[in-house]
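Person: I keep going back and forth on a fold encoding question. Show me how you would write down a chain together with its backbone fold. Please set it down just below, with no commentary around it:
Helper:
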Amino acid sequence: MVDSRARRGPLALYANLKMAQKLLVGFLAVSVLMVGVGVVGLAKLTAVETNLEYVYAQNLQSITWLHQAQDDATTGQRYVLEVAFVTDPAVRARTQTELVRLDALVDASWAKYVSTDMVGREKLRDDFNATMRVYRKVRDTQILPLIEAGRTADFVALHAKLVVPLINRISADLAGLVETENKVAAQHVAASAADYRFARNLIIGIILAALALSIGLAIGIGRMISGPLHQTVEALEGMAKGRLDLRLDIDTRDEVGQMARALNRSMLRLREATEADQRLASIVKYSQDVIISRGVDDKIMSWNPAAEQMFGYSSQEIIGKSASLLTPKDRAGELDVIGAKIRAGQAVEHFETTRVRKDGSVVPVSLTISPILDADGTLIGASTIAHDLTRQREASMLARSMIEASLDSLVSISPDHKIADANQATVRLTGVPRDKLIGTSFSGYFTEAEKAEEIYHLVLEQGSVTDYPLTVSRRDGRETSIEVLYNASLYRDTSGRVLGVFAAARDVTKQRQAQRQLQEANDAIRGFTAAAAHDLRSPLAAITGFSSLLSTNWETFTDEDRRKFVGSIDRQSQNMARLVDDLFTSASIEGGGLAASPEPIVVGEAIHRCLDAGSGDAASVAVSCPPDLVVRVDPHHLERILDNYVQNAFKYGEPPVRIEATRVGDMVEVRVLDQGPGVPPGFVSKLFGRFARADTPATRAKKGTGLGLSIVRGLAEVNGGRARYEPNVTGGSCFVVELPAGERPGA
């Protein structure tokens, strides 16, 4: 997008052009002003000419005044003559008065004349003044007194001798002055006219020179400006055609240079802005994400190739169409919500939704929508970046499938210690549906909540934990608790910000049970080893002892002693044989190598044979058995079962001991009951295991291998039956064996 400063470049250029235009107008104005000044000067010279004419007129006036003075002097002379020859006193008095007036007029005319500029005429003036002084002195001192005295003859003589020459001299002086004045006036007028013509021609020349200079300056400045302006116009035309690599080589310091530099900067900024626009256009064109712009009327204005590939519309098909064409009908309400945010100047980021293709198929997308503003900040449209989530959804589904396929419980824990997500293994582990798990406290599903809470803090401190033992408390009531081992670590977003803890739990209940069973088996084996060693050592010691006595002191013993010793050796040998037989039978059962040879056997007879072969305590056993009750079993196996049950009753129980046999369906149940303390409830499930011995005072007081009941169970199962324990209703224990019923031979 073009930078706003670059857009101001042409405005600055226009301002500089206007400045150059004003400068040219200024030069023309100066030229016009100079012409005006010349015209004013010419007008002034015309005024000078007028003044010279006025001076000329004044000179003529001076001559007029001289003539007037001459005329007044002549008239005065005439009056003098009249006074001299007039005898009438009244006339004479009037004539003398007129003579005085004329004399005053002569003085006034002369005074006016001499008040003018007399440069070059001072001698004439002085001569005339001297003559006038002589004349007036003669007139006043000699002529007038003679007239007053009436001495006419003397007056005439003196007048002719002195006055007439003086009058003539005065007239001649006045005539000379007039002639001189005429010459001086003519000279002044001629000089003034010459000066005037010179000044006029000079001013006209100055005006013409100023005009020519102004025109020349205007033409020069115009050319000086028009050359760069021509370059500028060419640069602007090139700029309009897209050529932004031009540069004006104008390096003056005037406004034109400033204009050129401004234009160069403008073209540089426009070039940079254009290159930025081209890069942006290239990014938009080759972007893998859809980039669309639309106007405020929701009409699509731009459409990149990725949009064409995703939606199937070409740019010619879609530009100018409404953007709602891409929105599924069930999501039309989204447009109003998005439009409201855009009009408010807010961007919509990572909005996951769906859009519809040209073929009608729906594609999942993530939208980022931003307002487009002009230079004044006015909303003119919106840009949309759409990312196709198809592969992401597929990958997410694959990842989810893998998570769900895990046999281990997987949970994500938020920073507030709530379960953010969980897989189906977690549902099976806790017995709580996934939608109810999410948002609940992680520690609430364990028997030790504080210990469960601690796992989060340990992960934050250490980064991860491994094999962290916890016990899950199920919520569905099927099992009270399940032992698990947790492996947990932090999980982060792409910027490295911690989002929470990811924890995987493996159900180790069976392993722990197996470990405990193994431990118990090891303990049992150790007990069995000790018991077996005891059971073997005791008869062996007896056999060894009695054999040694007999071999070394045979002659000293009586026959009765010898029979007694041999009987003891025989009994101890049978005990050892029985123990070895138990070990062999147990090994055969565990190895699956024990085989049975079932045959019909009368249960009552088998019970009595067992009791008869037993110790003296067996005679006190009460028997309840139908005489015709028959089982189908291996005779040796039945004997071992009955013998182990009876010995167990006398060894760990208390009398009275009784045996009950009944038929239940296709099976015969044989029960051996005693009145002892019974079997602890917690040990019942282990009662028929190998080497199993309950930890009770009775078992601690008596040694045993713990193989008897396990052999009973194995023998019963190999014959198609089973062995079990149930408490005696009247107290004590009740050991039961179920065997298939049979028919009496020959029946």
